[in-house]
Amino acid sequence: MDSSEPTRRDFMYLATGAFGAVGVAAVAWPFIDQMNPDAAALALATTEVDVSSMAPGQSITVSWRGKPVFIRYRTEKEITEAKDVPLGDLKDPIARNENLPSDAPATDANRAAEGKEPWLVMVGICTHLGCVPIGEAGEYDGWFCPCHGSSYDTAGRIRKGPAPENLLVPTYAFTADTVIRIG
Ligand code: FES
Q: Inter-axis angle of helices 23-34 and 37-44, to 10 degrees?
């Protein structure tokens, strides 16, 4: 067996780490499940998040329509790393940003918030088979999905492993300087 392959114990550890990262969201989900579907859908149609207390290098995970959404305030280094990637190196050349045309290219600018390049807002579900990737991990310093080893870069673009697409950027907007409305 290739010694770089995660062992089962490693996987359990990584999976536990991933769960911890979405702890807030995980608490919310059972509650939502108990509401009737219409009320739950209404409650979750949009989610507003105050990010005023976040500093560069910090991430939070919020729940939106029952899914984890990663919000990351990127460092200068992360932005530079993402911008330096030639588009030809990308496995998925499409931005996958619901705020842009469906054929928009996966430049860093097309992945980040409009006019606020440090901010990334992405659905935290691996595009392979739906695990929740771990932040600040993997070969490209972005997100790593331990289920089958997909690595995403600092713009959430798939760079290695079986996942076919970049992490999805949902419909969202900054409604104030530090308030994001998702949905
Ligand atoms: Fe993420 Fe398979 S679900 S790599």
A: 140
Q: Where are the beta strands (DSSP E) in the chain?
A: 47-50, 58-64, 67-73, 119-123, 134-135, 143-145, 150-152, 158-160, 172-176, 179-182
* CA–centroid distance, residue 52 to ligand 1 (Å): 32
Mean pLDDT over 51-72 rounds to: 95
Q: Taking the model in full, what pTM does it have?
A: 0.78
128 catalytic per annotation? no
**For tokens 């939502």, what's the residue?**
32
User: What does the domain layout of the chain look like in residue ranges?
Assistant: 42-182
**∠ CA 75-180-94 to the nearest 5 degrees?**
65
Q: Is 67 in the pocket of ligand 1 (CB under 6 A)?
A: no
For 136, phi then psi, to 5°, come to: 50, 45
Q: Degrees (nearest 5) of the Cα angle 58, 63, 67? A: 110
Pairing of strands 58-64, 67-73: antiparallel
Confidence label for 32 from pLDDT (cuts 50, 70 and 90):
very low
Strand partners, 15: none
Task: Tell me the mean pLDDT in the region 146-167.
Answer: 98
The span from the CA of 130 to the CA of 133, in Å, is 9
CATH number of 42-182: 2.102.10.10
